[in-house]
Fold these 3 entries.
Entry 1:
Amino acid sequence: MMTVVFVHGVPETGRLWDPLRRHLKAESLALNLPGFSTPRPAGFGATMDDYVRWLSGELRGISGPVDLVGHDWGALLVARVAMLDFLPLRSWAMDVASILHPDYVWHDPAQRWQTSGAGEQWAQTMRGNTTVATAALTAAGVPAEDASGMGAQFDAHMAGCILDLYRSATPNPYAHWGADLTRTAAPGLVIQPLSDPYDDQINSQKVAERLGAHVECLPGQSHWWMLSAPEESAAALLRFWKTVGMDS
């Protein structure tokens, strides 16, 4: 029996996946990144490699084959675990694959978070102020009915982890992980919501080719595709999983 494991991004929690999970007829688990709706563990650096080690540890505790699915930063962690191939995944799926392209330039909010002083000012403005956080998330494209719940989850733990995570990923993730960007042992899927402002379709395709992954386009969907079109998104994953046995 396969287990689907979902990994969220920034600034989210595992609740992000609830609407999509309701459309799956499979056992699933949505993890919370350390510091995201959970306390930040003592001594946890919240760097990109720290989160990869954490995710690897979580997956080792799951018996049976795993279909791993990630969004945003969760997508990058999923890709990294698949690239390193030290865990027996049945399959993996990610979005925003272009962030792993060598030419990727971080978006403006990320550059603010990576800047000393400016990042701390942003965190101070956002945390504890659900109204401000909700407005910022809505402006970024989170569906209005989901933005308030997401904004209410934002706290000092999450803010600090976001700053440390992004500051560990300069100038871009490829500079750190690009040497291992090659075809993965487990079958992979790159999801392309065609209206995602944080992704680039051409470079996403190039990364998918490097990883040997299938590509599934979601026309009319944006960065938070699992919220705006949960049934369609679940169907895309189910189609991919049906091919996994044929690929392996």
Entry 2:
Amino acid sequence: MVEDPEWPSVPLGLLRQARPWRTFRWFKGQQHYSGTYWSATVGDHVIYESRLELGRLLFAGFAPEVRQIVAQPFLLKAGVDGKVRKHIPDYLLLTDDGPVVVDVNRGTDLRSRKSLSPSPGRGAVTSRGWQYEVWSEPDPHVLENVRFLAGYRRAWLFDPDLVAALRAVDLDGMSLGDAFRLRPECPRPLVKSAVLYLLWSGHVTTALDRPLSTGHVLRRAA
């Protein structure tokens, strides 16, 4: 397979504001699940065309290094074996480490292909110094925990003074249960939700490969 890495130079500023190249469709009997997800990263709704794409959006929102998420940002054209192939990536993530172009595919789909050759746009993407990622099903426990924490992604719902007080505490090595009891003068549900917001926003981390419990130990984010 030969790829054509030559494609027009598009400023990232324009891509940051790009509208989806196509939008999802609804029809009776469709096999995929489409919708919109409100992303705290962009402060707006982002479209997805499958539950797997929704999962990638959740992970992108949970990653503090991701600064912008653009759905179906552009159309790639590449010469492959003398033919022009077209491809629309699922997402463009603008991160602290540079742009990441993401294609979301089920693992079963990848394994069923006769050739696991890369997208025709991979060479065009990597030639710019960008990263290219094929994303499949994550660990189910991690996905469930990230989905749960996403319920605490809206910063304006939390008391800023309470959040600031919790940020000032050294939470490293403390259990979730102990963190929930840090401010006894405040209603427990408010403290609990603020601690979980700190987890979502990346102020602290914890192991997510098993169901969250009060015994989970918090760690200072790197």
Entry 3:
Amino acid sequence: MTHLISQINAYKIFLITLMMLPAAIYSQSRRFIYSYSFAPDSAKTDSMITEYTRLDVFQDHSEFLSDVGAKKDSAISSAVRNRQSQADIKLPDGKYANKTFKSKELIYTLEYIGIQPFKVIRNQKLNWKLLGERKKIQGYDCQKALLHYGGRKWEAWFTADIPLQDGPYVFNGLPGLIVQMRDTENQHSFLLVENFKVPDIKTNLINKPYFVPVEVSEAQFNKKWNEYRKNPVGATEQFMMMNPGLLSGESFDTNGNKIDMSQKKREEKEYATRQLYHNNNFIDLILYQNK
């Protein structure tokens, strides 16, 4: 009992200290690189993909997204701004396509149904359970916490050494930065591997022309997801639905020969169906639950 009271008092002191820290300490943007490992297919959980993701912490909000994806978006934006060709941009697309925005007033994730982006407003409160267990991870003194979120059980290790109540994806609210986090099935895991200051930038979330996100609630997104899952369409057909009147419906190959659009749509629909089948193991299972 005495040990528990001591822990509670220490936690209160930490929060008071955190509130009293001068804002200038983290007035500059900071970047935290996480190695993210995940199994895209729930039927093949031994086939893991690993890529770097970034948590950028600004003065009034933070953003979480694929590191290489952010670099590619920035390169494309620069090329468009300077009226340069995008053909020389050789960066790959990130395997982790979604993006997260977090502030005191708002949390949303950018989710994709096919090629169409959706701005999904996330209002769920994270009910963390703090444990007394501690260990050193990546050189940081860390404490353990548990969470039920998105139909998964999560184990997190956070450090008061970095007084930021943040972490990967939508995860935040702990008294310190999350250093390591994984679900108990070991299908999704994050590990902090780097931490440095970055030039003063305003955002990584750059909307692409003709792909402006549609704002929806979690329930609305799930409805749209299930409609698409039951009747997937290919990229060309979906793009035409997103931007009516922009394309004529005709397409030509590099030799100038007219492409059979009906055949192309069938092939793209088959591809979209395969993608749905093999990419089904989402971080948030509730958001994507089948109905």
